[in-house]
Amino acid sequence: MSVLSLNNVSYSYEGKTKVLDNINYSFEKGKVYAIVGRSGAGKTTLLSLLSGLVSPTEGEINFGNTNVRKIDRYLFRSKYVGVIFQAYNLLPHLTAEENVEMSMRASGKKIPNKRAEAKRILQSVGLDESLAKRRILKLSGGEQQRVAIARALSFNPNVILADEPTGNLDLTTQEEIMNIFKDLAHSGNKCIIIVSHNPEVSQMADEVYELASLRK
Question: Could you tell me the pTM of the whole model?
């Protein structure tokens, strides 16, 4: 059964310029999905739709059997769906573990010892205690991406959405990050949805959806 699905979804900016047309995608737990397409095909728009930031002009998006329109948007993004941004969007004045803790507090997740849980999650994505205590600007790009993944995992969502998560990384680090995503899907039973133009990401995904550009 799909955890997230798009049924005849279309989207137009200001009701005029159509970016997506009659999209039907289904996403299941335990898999890594890559959404690919040329620049302007609507990849980032689709991610915004899946995260509940915007609503489709036509059609519907369902989380399980529930239309996302009927779910409080803050609740949806703080309980069910974790988002990893291309630019990481971490708070630079905080440490790695403080970034993860802040996400836990924002979600309202009840954890007696948030610091210990933050350390555990960071360790699960390859960051030891010494790195967990470093401020964000003292970490490499790959380490910052791991913090972003840990932050998305902080409230244990069913779905992880990632916007170009390997775009600024070298080939070795790209593969390491993709292996984290694969482990989260295959061992952690998460649904991982990645928007990317990178062919290496597509090759490591379980399923690939390609968006066709509507621009002429």
Answer: 0.92
